[in-house]
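Please fill in the sequence for the structure shown.

STRUCTURE ENCODING:
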């Protein structure tokens, strides 16, 4: 017998999703489910830090105005 402690997800259809270890063999298993009354609080993940690189313009004469891009006059 093994004890697996994991955080599970209950969907709106009342389905339980539990991540299992890779070494658990496929097939039918006898399980016992104990559920705490209150759900775990949602943790907000911080935004990943992204680095910017100053590349400048390719050409000093280049503009990104609509008139220059599409030939509008």
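FILLED IN BY: designer on duty
SEQUENCE:
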């Amino acid at each position: 017998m093994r004890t697996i402690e994991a955080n599970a997800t209950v969907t709106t259809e009342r389905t339980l999703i539990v991540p299992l270890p890779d070494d658990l063999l496929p097939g039918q298993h006898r399980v016992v489910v104990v559920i705490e009354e209150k759900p775990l609080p949602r943790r907000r993940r911080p935004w990943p830090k992204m680095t910017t690189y100053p590349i400048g313009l390719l050409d000093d004469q280049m503009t990104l105005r609509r008139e220059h891009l599409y030939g509008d006059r």
